[in-house]
Amino acid sequence: MEQGYQLQIFDSLPSTNTYLQELAEQGAPSGTAILARHQTAGRGRMGRKFYSPQGTGLYMSLLLRMDESPETALLLTPMAAVAAAEGIEAVTGKSVQIKWVNDLFYRSKKVCGILAQSKLTEDGKRLSYAIIGIGINLTAPQGGFPQELSEIAGALYAEHEHPTEGLLQTLAEEILSRLVQMSGELTKRTYLPAYRERLCMIGRRVTVVGQDWEQEAAALAVDDDLRLLVEYADGRREWRSTGEIRIRL
């Protein structure tokens, strides 16, 4: 694999992450990449579905085998966000921002989601492999997004624009090349400055949402471990982890 990855393209799959996980268990090498034009059971974070209609987006996953500590898995998401953002900008010329921790926004709408999954070795001390899934809305589906997504979901191209099949593959290759390159520096965190530069919520008011509560706050910073520093109206500050809370802009 001269370019560091080997891309397989499918017309439709239930989920590129699920399919690639099956290949990983069968011994597929690091750098195996799967792209589908359509997913029938696309997956997002926290068990959510990822809307993946035919002919409107790019849905792909990359397998990385790495001998790293389990904690480094947290770094896969910001790395992938930067790779996707840079790839989009290089191919389309459109500037995108990152919403902590893993969504890409264009013109205030979500256009890309990222799902990083990993498996540990039997002793639980090292990563066996990781799978990074990326879904990008290139165009809105005919008739628009479903009602439950219409307020937050967007696309990189307007309805009258029609990105070509060549653009789809070029974009995939651009992102994959960056992912493979950055993965070699995963623990060095060289991508974090670019991640922070693109964060769209720093300095803004956000809603911090817990399991059974929500509270207004200002988003102030993100540290090297991807924790978000928020300040509440009473002046109290705290670092919150993505597994504990989510935010709304």
What portion of residues belong to β-strands?
25-35%
Number of strands: 12
Distance between the termini: 41 Å
Helix content: 10-25%
Radius of gyration, in Å, reads 18 Å
What is the 3D shape? globular
Classification by helices and strands: alpha+beta
Q: In what order do the strands lie side by side in the largest sheet?
A: 1-2-3-7-6-5-4
- Give the low-pLDDT segments: none
Count of helical regions: 4
What kind of sheet is the major sheet?
Answer: 7 strands, mixed
Written as H for each helix and E for each strand, in order along the chain, the element string is EHEEHEEEEHHEEEEE
| Overall average residue pLDDT | 89
Question: What's this entry about, in short?
Answer:
This protein is of the alpha+beta class.
